[in-house]
């Protein structure tokens, strides 16, 4: 009976180690807390968004030069 428990424990440890390895690969992927689906982190910008970003960067540079 003791030998069976040892074999069972070894099988569990090999399964859990493979889970840990797969979790390491998936740690970089962000998932939704509600659905568990992978989250898309890239935001698609249109021409207006790009123009706003350019204007914002120019304003920040101007304000930083005034401070220096």
Task: Briefly say what this structure is.
This protein is mostly helical.
Structural features, described:
The chain has 68 residues and is mainly α. It contains two helices and no strands. It has helices spanning 2-26, 47-67. The longest helix has 25 residues, at 2-26. It is elongated and about 50 Å long.
Order of helices and strands: HH
The chain-level structural class is mainly alpha
Name the poorly predicted regions.
none
Q: What would the principal axes of the Cα set say about the shape?
A: elongated
| Strand percent estimate | under 5%
Number of helices: 2
* Quaternary form: single chain
Alpha carbon gap, first and last residue: 78 Å
Biggest pleated-sheet summary: none
Indicate the percent of residues in helices: 55-70%
Region (Disordered): 1-48
Biased composition (Basic and acidic residues): 18-31
SSE map:
Blueprint (H helix, E strand, L loop, with lengths): L1 H25 L20 H21 L1
């Amino acid at each position: 009976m003791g030998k069976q428990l040892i074999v069972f424990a070894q099988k569990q440890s090999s399964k859990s180690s493979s889970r840990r390895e797969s979790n390491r690969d998936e740690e970089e992927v962000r998932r939704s807390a509600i659905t568990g689906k992978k989250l898309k982190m890239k935001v698609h910008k249109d021409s207006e968004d790009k123009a706003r970003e350019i204007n914002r960067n120019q304003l920040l540079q101007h304000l930083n030069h005034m401070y220096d």
